[in-house]
Amino acid sequence: MAKKILITGGTGFIGYHLCKKSLELGWKVTSLSTNFPKKKIKLSGVNYIKGDLIDKNVLKKINGNYDYVVNLAGYVDHKNKKKTLDSHYKGCVNLASFFIKKKIKKFVQIGSSIEYGRAKSPQLENLDKFKNTYSYYGKAKQLSTKYLLNLFKKKKFPVTILRFYLVYGPYQSRNRVVPITISNALKDSDFDCSEGKQLRDFLHIDDAIRAIIKSLRNKKASGEIINIGWGKPTKIKDIIIKICKLVGSGNPKFGSIKLRKDEIMTLYPSISKAKKIIKWKPKIELNSGLKKTIKYYKKNE
To answer: How far apart are CA 68 and CA 78, in angstroms?
Structure first.
């Protein structure tokens, strides 16, 4: 019997790639998102359902039983504080509450590195887990983690929380540092940047998807928070220079954008737990990953 997977937020960047990989594995795929997919990311074979998890009645649209559930849903514009909290936390509660009575094999919650707040890098999952995150998005993700781990503790709900760092790759919206830089480099534009001294962890989307698949199939991962990233940081300035060199054009104006006063300068994870529990480690080196990503944007710019 083919596995059945429900992917909330299946029309987003990570969701699209997870839907695609799930189809390749021969699984039956359902996507639940607030919008139907744009033409370029619509996949034949995916059952697309439109709805917002904040509304419990939306879950009535989901028919049948599922083996796996992956929660990628949530409001992406974090300026609206209430909508951010509701979509990421209440939506997660509604989804998990619906599936607590179902016999699913695994529920994967996509968390965020921001849940650690300003904890020193490399960040470990066994830190004092629930510190101030300094953002409503971080708070919503953190509340979701608390709720889900409590469900595991009390009811053995098979949940794994994956905390992603900076994921990049084809089909990503042009509001992140990698696609912004690629787009400007391809146009040979001058573009404003900060000094770029911040250290960040960059992971190619294919490695991120492998981590999700491995955690879905791993019973030992239930009840765990697991960091997913490259495990070594790169300066923002270095990645911008690298992209411009690979493209062969582009003129970044470093220092033309001031850093926020509360900017976290160093952010990267320990990935030892991912290696140990789900037997995962990243494979795609930054140069190779950027070349693949640039190739996509060259074709679609």
So the answer is: 28
* pLDDT classification of 261: cutoffs 50, 70, 90: confident
- Domains of the chain with bracketed CATH: 4-165+203-228 (3.40.50.720), 167-201+231-268+283-300 (3.90.25.10)
Residue of 96, 72, 89 whose CA lies nearest to 15? 72
Residues 6+ apart with CB under 8 A from 24: none
Say what angle helices 286-300 and 236-247 make with each other, to 10 degrees: 50
Q: How confident is the model at residue 260 (pLDDT cuts 50, 70, 90)?
A: confident
Token readout for 81 is 């504080």
118/131 Cα distance (integer angstroms): 8
Whether the per-residue pLDDT at 131 is higher than 90: the answer is no
DSSP string for residues in the chain: ---EEEEETTTSHHHHHHHHHHHHTT-EEEEEESSPPPGGG--TTEEEEE--TTSGGGGGG--S--SEEEE----S-TTSHHHHHIIIIIHHHHHHHHHTTS--SEEEEEEEGGGGTTPPSSB-TTS-S----SSHHHHHHHHHHHHHHHHHHHH---EEEEEE-EEE-TT--TTSHHHHHHHHHHTT-EEE------EE-EEEHHHHHHHHHHHHT-GGGTTEEEEES-SS-EEHHHHHHHHHHHHT--EEETTSSPPPTT--SEE-B--HHHHHHS-------HHHHHHHHHHHHHHH-
